Amino acid sequence: MNQQKIFVQMALHSWNTQLARAEKIFSSFSEAAFYLPVAPGKNRVIYLYGHLAAYHDALKETLGIGKRTEPEFAAIFLQNPDDSDAVMPSITELKKYWELVHSELNELFANTSEDDWFKRHNAMTDEDFEKDPSRNRLSVLLNRANHIAYHIGQVILVNPGNS
Amino acid sequence: MNQQKIFVQMALHSWNTQLARAEKIFSSFSEAAFYLPVAPGKNRVIYLYGHLAAYHDALKETLGIGKRTEPEFAAIFLQNPDDSDAVMPSITELKKYWELVHSELNELFANTSEDDWFKRHNAMTDEDFEKDPSRNRLSVLLNRANHIAYHIGQVILVNPGNS
Question: Which InterPro entries does the UniProt entry name for this protein (chains A, B) (predicted)?
């Protein structure tokens, strides 16, 4: 196996591990538990679920490999903090959105060559990339894996059976 | 820059970013805040601080590049859950421990060659490594960066000024 391929496998493994862990936890929650905050006065599970899905929807554009499916979700889940007065999509809608975004990413990743993973992402200029080639698409994926882990650490605090 | 070097930089960047973020948050806490739980009935900040330091102390052995400084901390911070009746080291002692572990790791990492990062870690056999060379030392570092992010997501829930 060539080394470039090993790196890509390692980064995808990190992403896939965190994603699978998130999916396992979210799928253990009752619908009512989605409306619980992770700690008193903090974000609710529904917000973090939509936040991760919308952030990963936008990841296609950050990587420059696709377009967002639901750009209008950015206002609720990315540009604003959780707000229990905001009109949120239903859990059923959000689950569909999550599935769609991640199955699309899965397919896009499968079609991204090793060379393409080491190209610059859309959030930086050619000039900056020339100076620091470690800031490539794969580094965005590593960052997003950490971001999932960060929020898993929070949703795990909620008792899934609570209502 | 060769690709192996780029990937080592990426993984170290991921680790350093999460570590710096953790240090910034822990250093913002008053001594009293270290004794607060991250959510009602959950781990206290002091436990998570000691847990990360002890896990990173053990990381030297997992990577096969050094020995643990305080193996006796494993019982309190790794093998058992948080227990408010347990006798814990003071915050001053834990801060010294944290500094020591991370400055040592920093030096060890600086002296680890790119080739060495791609060797197998001590938690797997030669045979397994032959089958999957992506399970190398660098993959352990990526995993530990995710682990820091997971606990940052929790300690960030505590108001640092609370006492």
Answer: DinB-like, DinB/YfiT-like
- How much is the pLDDT for A161? 66
A-to-B residue pairs, Cβ atoms closer than 8 angstroms? 96
The pLDDT value given to residue A124: 83
The torsion angle over the Cα atoms of residues A19, A21, A25 and A28, rounded to 10 degrees, is 100
Q: Please write the tens of the pLDDT for every residue from B32-59.
A: 999 999 999 999 999 999 999 999 999 9
A120: left (phi over 0), alpha (psi -120 to 50) or beta: beta
* Domain tally, chain A: 1
The span from the CA of B97 to the CA of B99, in Å, is 5
Q: Which of A4, A133, A149 sits opposite B146 (nearest CB)?
A: A149
Contact B40 A39 (CB under 8 A): yes
Q: Does A2 touch chain B (CB under 8 A)?
A: no
- Examine residue B80 and state whether it is found in any structural domain, yes or no: yes
Tokens for B14, please give them: 């991921």
Any domain includes B163: no
Is position B162 within any domain? no
H runs (alpha helix) in A37-159: 45-63, 73-77, 91-110, 114-117, 126-131, 137-155
So what's the pLDDT on residue B121? 84
Residue B161 has pLDDT above 80, yes or no: no
Is A161 part of a structural domain of the chain?
no
Range of the domain at B46: 3-155
pLDDT at A8: 95
CATH classification at residue B126: 1.20.120.450
